[in-house]
Every structure is written in C-alpha cells, then in structure tokens.
Amino acid sequence: MNKYILPVSVLGTVVGCGVLLKDHVTGGSCPSKDKIKGKTVVITGANTGIGKETARELAKRGGRIIMGCRDMEKCEAATREIRGETLNSQVYARHIDLASIKSIREFANWVNQEEERVDILINNAGVMRCPHWKTEDGFEMQFGVNHLGHFLLTNLLLEKLKSSAPSRIITLSSLAHIVGEIDFDDLNWEKKKYNTKMAYCQSKLANVLFTRELARRLQGTGVTANSLHPGVVATELGRHTGMHQSSLSSSVLGPLFYMLVKSPKQGAHPSVYLAVAKELEEATGRYYDVLQEKEPAPLALDDSAALRLWDVSAALVGLKPAEMAPPPKEEGVSVATPTAQTQAQLPVTPLPEKV
Ligand SMILES: NC(=O)C1=CN([C@@H]2O[C@H](COP(=O)(O)OP(=O)(O)OC[C@H]3O[C@@H](n4cnc5c(N)ncnc54)[C@H](OP(=O)(O)O)[C@@H]3O)[C@@H](O)[C@H]2O)C=CC1
Ligand SMILES: CC1=C(/C=C/C(C)=C/C=C/C(C)=C/C=O)C(C)(C)CCC1
C-alpha cells in the first residue's frame, strides 16, 4: 500500500468534516427578517430540497411565489403544502423543464404575459453527476440544465425584472466551481471522455461567470445579479451518485452525513438572505459562500472568459440580440452574433425552428 494513502485520507476526512461542521454552525439562521409583501418571486426546481424550503420561507414573508418545476404532480403537492402551512394563497405551480428550450420559452412567455411583475428570480434547479445524458436540444445535461437553461430563462425574463426594479437575480452555484474549467472547445463533452464530476464543476463555474457578465450588463438598471454556494445540504442532489444504493452509505455514511450537513431549511438561508435583505439592495456581481461574500476561484474572475461564455451560450440557445441584456454602451453592438467558433459548439440535434 502506498505510504501516503492513510495520512492523505485522514487529512481529507478531517478537512471535509471541518467544512461540514463550519457550514452546519454558520447556517443556523437567516440574518435578515425583511418581508417581501407585494413582491413576486420566480424560483426553479422548487418541488424539493433547497428550492422548496426557499419557496416556503419566501411565502411566509408574504411574497407571491411562482414555483417552476418539471414534475407537476410533485410541484402541486409542494404548493399545497406551502399554502397550507403559510396561509399564503399566492403560491403557484407552473411547468418548466430546463432541459428543453421550448419549455423554457413557454414558461417565460407565460410569466411575461400573466404576471405584472417579477422582483426576484432564483435560478435554483440543478442536476449533479448524472450519466452522460443530453437535453432535448442535444446539450450535455448538467451544462444544459444548470447553466444554459438558466441563462436563457434569465434573459427572457429581463424586461419584466427591469420594469419591476429594484429587482434581484440569484443563481445557485457551488463550492465545486473551484475545480471547474470551461472547455470552450468541447462544452458538451462530445470529443473527450465524459467525466460526470467535472461536468458538474464546469456547470457551476459557468453559473459564477454568467452572474459576473450579467451583473456587468445590468449596471444602472436596478437589477442585481449574485451567485452563491448554499453549503453542503442533505437533499436529493446526490441521487445520481449511487451513495444511497451502497450498503455502507445507507447504514453508516448516510446517517452520519445527515447529522453533519445542513438541513434543506438551513440550506435555504443564503438564497433567502440574498433575495430579501434590504442592506443587499445594491449588491451585485458578488459570490456568497453560505452567508459570507467571498472571492470566487481565479477562473471565475476572468472577464474575457465570462464574455466568451455569454457569447457561446447565446448562440447555443438561439437567443436573439434583442432578447438579451445588451453589453454596456461603450462596447457597442452585441457580442452574441454566432462566430465560426460558436457555430462549432452548436448541438448535433438541430434547434427547434421557432426559437
Ligand atoms: N445540496 C447541496 O449540498 C448543494 C446544492 N447546490 C445547488 O443547489 C441547487 C438546489 O439543489 P438541491 O436542492 O440540493 O437539489 P435537489 O436535487 O434536492 O433539487 C433539485 C431541483 O432541481 C430540479 N430539476 C432538476 N432538473 C431539472 C430540469 N431539467 N428542469 C427543471 N427542474 C429540474 C429537481 O426537480 P425533480 O425533483 O423533478 O428532479 C429539483 O426540484 C442546485 O443548483 C445545486 O447545484 C450547490 C452546492 C451544494
Ligand atoms: C449522502 C447521501 C445522499 C445525499 C448526497 C448529497 C446531498 C450530496 C451533495 C452534494 C454537494 C455538496 C454538492 C455540491 O455542489 C443521498 C443520495 C440523498 C442518499 C444517502 C446518502
């Protein structure tokens, strides 16, 4: 046996437990008690986990909550539960599948037509370490749902957010962004061997870079954009990791994990804080590690990568220049015209005709 394996494992376990304990201790309560009566919240992936607890807390604080989910049975069950508990009747279930451009456009059209305002958009839905699946439009699933889906949704709701200003966009990233890299030559994992962990990390780095470029484009509009890591939270996110199938996990590691990590209710505190706190009304372009503003990883501070990702993402999802946040005035024309390089990134499956 390699003599380093034992000390490295022990050190890894100690550091890992330290991170979990720190999260557990610091995730105790939401620092803001501000209410949001009269405000409308759109939140994705709200039928379970962090999203459901965020929706519940924001409903308690008086908001009108639009829960965007892909499984309507689960979504309606969650809205019934939240309405019953909070006595807030303005909690609604609406269909959105972030793995489908068509579905995202239908959801956004519905919100734009039916809702008077959107004050808070929470890009919460996520998928982690799934097999090498593709979205309806041919994108690698984690990049497609976690980044591209929210990129498109956010842009399609921007006019509504601007007309409701001051308003806020919150995107759930992860500490996992630190190990992520954006492979602009193969965003969809078509050329190299699929690595499901690194695909998740790439998508979470994309969340931070997207937020950075979005905040830059939204300067002066009254719409802010921030991203966050919610801590390590016991949710269904690990459903594709196989942990629940292993007997060691279910007998020993599972219960230990649940004791150490945060509950979904605690995991919702950062999203709620960024959504409601009066003192954060002008905070934008920031990354929060749980409740603390932190500098993200060096790759997440790369403005040219953020701009390039915006450009490629717009081309991939077929977002027209008139539909997206324009670059700041001094830069002139939109950067999102497809170039030879972005064309090369287009999915194998053709985009739907009506985009
Ligand atoms: N839990 C943790 O420790 C951490 C979580 N995060 C981030 O927090 C966010 C919330 O995750 P969490 O609550 O933990 O995970 P869960 O798996 O419990 O919840 C994820 C939600 O996303 C939804 N979702 C997945 N795919 C799609 C899709 N194609 N269209 C619409 N909705 C979809 C799920 O719907 P359905 O139930 O139908 O599958 C579910 O509602 C994610 O962005 C995650 O990356 C970041 C760091 C740590
Ligand atoms: C432990 C465990 C689970 C949860 C795993 C989770 C919730 C992992 C979270 C991952 C993180 C921290 C992602 C960061 O971006 C299951 C599968 C529910 C079943 C039982 C064992």
Short description:
The protein is of the alpha/beta class.
Query: What's the CATH architecture name?
Result: 3-Layer(aba) Sandwich
Overall, the morphology is globular
Note the main sheet. 8 strands, mixed
- Low-pLDDT windows of residues: 333-355
Please give the alpha-carbon distance between the first and last residues.
57 Å
CATH topology: Rossmann fold
Radius of gyration: 20 Å
The number of helical runs is: 11
Region (Disordered): 323-355
GO molecular function, one term: all-trans-retinol dehydrogenase (NADP+) activity
Pfam family, one: adh_short
Family: Belongs to the short-chain dehydrogenases/reductases (SDR) family.
Please characterize this protein's 3D structure:
This protein is an alpha/beta fold and 355 residues long. It has a single domain, classed as 3-Layer(aba) Sandwich (Rossmann fold). Helices cover 44% and strands 11% of the residues. The chain contains eleven helices and eight strands. It has an eight-stranded mixed beta sheet with strand order 3-2-1-4-5-6-7-8, sandwiched between helices. Strand 5, helix 6 and strand 6 form a beta-alpha-beta unit. The C terminus is likely disordered. The site of retinal has 16 residues, from helix 7.
